[in-house]
Fold:
Amino acid sequence: MQQIHAVYFSPTGTTRKTCLTVAQTISEELLLPLSAEDFTLPDKRKEALSYSAEDIVVIGLPVYAGRLPNLILPYLKTLRGQNTLAVPLVLFGNRNYDDALLELGLLLEAQGFSLIGAAAFVGEHAFSRELGAGRPDRRDMKKIREFGENIAVKLKEKAAPKSIWSLLHEEERPLKPYYTPRDRKGTPINILKVKPKLDPSKCIGCGRCVTLCPMGSIDASDVSVINGICIKCGACEKGCPAGARYFDDPGYLYHRSELEAQYSRRARISVFL
Structure:
């Protein structure tokens, strides 16, 4: 073992915090150097990442509708391992991670990685400032560090990798579909094309939203224009220093209010070793 790598997609920073903490803990326990590969922004996804059998990769992504962000999947499929030990992590917004962790584990195995542990942690929901507010908090961070310590113990003991099915204690099956928001009558709510609006009276023209958008969709010459796809990651809305970004789509707002009403409890993390 030569190096620990923290690899992550993190529009609002919570996945980054979690992934780096796990990787840093392993690095300290094993006295190995640590590097970080952040592929959140489009420019960082122009070149594929590859790792050797001497590397240990901790890779983290947020959960969107119970799965991995679908528009990031093409890049994930360019990752290359050479029997590289890996630890998949997902961060979900207080509802559920559904099949996201399984999906990430399967993808890594297909790309030449061997799994030595996996975990689903909790962060603030991309749509809300109430769901999972402040998470990962102090209690979470203690468990995140403990998870990293346990991974380091496995590495020291040269424990054999496990398949993602074995780690999650599941029998092989098809992946579940993406979570579909519905109204109280069970009618699906389609928010795929919804984009955030800009309040010009609040905008200070800093252009921060342009630099934060993981899809590169906000027009630098006119930040009120979103030329490309919006994945509803919350980066521009939560990252705006003036609070100028907002959503007003009725379906989106209804879905957010229903999530906040149904999933206000403290969601539990899940660790697999």
Observations:
- Residues 3-176+266-272 form a domain with the Rossmann fold fold (CATH 3.40.50.360).
- The chain has a mean pLDDT of 96.
